[in-house]
Amino acid sequence: GGGGTGGAASSPGAFLAVALGGAGGSGGNAGDVTFNGSLGRIDTAGKYATAVLAQSVGGGGGTGGYATSRSVGYGLSASSSTGGSGGKGGSGGTVKIVNSTAIRTGGEAAVGLQATSIGGGGGSGGGAGAFAVALPAVTPSGEPLPSITVSNAIGGSGGDGGQGKSAGVDNKNAGIETFGAGATGILAQSIGGGGGNAGNAFAYGLAIAAPGASAFNATNAVGGSGGGGGSGDSARAYNDGSVYTHGDGAMGMHVQSIGGGGGNAGSASASADALSLYRTVAFGQTIGGTNSKG
After folding, report:
1. Cβ count near 240 (within 10 Å)
2. How many degrees, rounded to 5, is the angle at CA 75 between CA 71 and CA 80?
3. pLDDT tens, 242-263?
4. How many C-beta neighbours within 10 Å does residue 242 have?
5. SS3 of 230, please?
6. Alpha carbon of 169 to those of 73, 93, 97, 183, 191: distances in Å?
7. Under 8 Å CB-to-CB from 119, ≥6 apart: which residues?
8. Which residue(s) pair with 273 in the sheet?
9. pTM higher than the cut 0.85
């Protein structure tokens, strides 16, 4: 099954606020699947009607939780938030078909024998938002104090895709015949799961100083990294029977191994404002997330 979603976090506070999104759960691994067909006959007539389908699919990773922190204070305010990471996709199991049964399909895009192992997709990373405001502050004697604001937001990373395991079909001395357009006699495929998308990050800070005092503001936002795609494993097909197709775009045997695509990186946005009649220093930094390989 698929992994659970991480819990969201929201943290309001005076002077300091910190929020951490929960991580998404990992998807479960799928078991092995075997089909043995001996003698007899299988006929299908409908569109997409597959005669024999054996597949093992890993569960998808859960989504990371969103994190939001908000802080307000006199003279000093700091806020930090980190989105939860997406869960890793589960692996597909090994799939094998051994067939000596006669098969006939009459519908469009139908498949005679199909063995598929698919890795689960990685979960998306949680977004992050951090907001900090520092208000004017003075001492009991009326001396103005500087106002300082720091805010930091980091998007959660996407989970890696699960691996597809080996998939094989052995058609032994059996006849397979399809009549629909786009139909396939034998299909064996191993497909890796796609990496999860990363979480976006947004940070905002505002420092307001009393007359005669300085205002300082530092704001940082970092987008999360995309999850890596899972790898496909070996795909194999053997036939010593007969395979006939009748229809446009039909294929007798189709064998493929496909790796999963990497997840998209998270975006980052930061805004730093400082207000003072004496001196203002504002620093804002944004760093976009990195993509992972498929």
Report:
1. 9
2. 30
3. 999 999 999 999 999 999 999 9
4. 14
5. coil
6. 67, 15, 5, 17, 16
7. 58, 89, 90, 91, 92, 161, 162, 163, 164, 191, 192, 193, 230, 260
8. 206
9. yes
